[in-house]
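Sequence, structure tokens quoted for completeness.
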Amino acid sequence: MKTPVNAYTLKNHFTYSWWKYLLVLIAGIFLVDLLFTVTRPRTPENKKVDFYVYGFVNSEALTAYMDEVHQQDLPDMEEVTFNALTSEDTYGPMQLTTYIAVQEGDLYLLPREQFISFAGTGAFLPLEDDEELMALFNDAGKSLRRGWRTLTDSDETHLYGIPVDQVPGILNLAYAEDGFLAVLAANGNTENVMKFLRRLTRDTITEPAPSPSPVPEPSPAP
């Protein structure tokens, strides 16, 4: 005998089976998101430079700067962008670990604790062989000593990061506490990522000049 469909049976059905509809809704949203992620057009790794900041960014200033570098130094790239990662204590480390594990992002700005942790695993590219970059800091009398780290599973020691206290001008664009700039080893576009890093450090190695104070107008004669 079929159960009659009326207000009472519908109410009873939804009282005990609402979770099934919620589950179907969540599964549907997940499948749509997965389909979009898999099918959306992706820029080839060798045609983009991504700057990931695990900290805080001045979005307006950094967007303008990235656009300028794109036009002047990296015109062959399809994308020169930044991504501001959350630095929230619970979710932030998990997000950062995921991005590095799946090899997303090219250049990272991250705090000292996270830099040391990932540098020890070999996640970042050694920088000491880039003659132009080294000459820039040597000529400016800047020390990169704090950026040298030893791999945890060997005795190899390399320069894995640029301490941001040696590029103070970067504070106008982004900030990470006692931070370091580091290039992801598996970035897929080393030539252009290093070109971006050289430009960024050259522009920020000194404090920006302060804006000139306006000259006060002379007081009118009495």
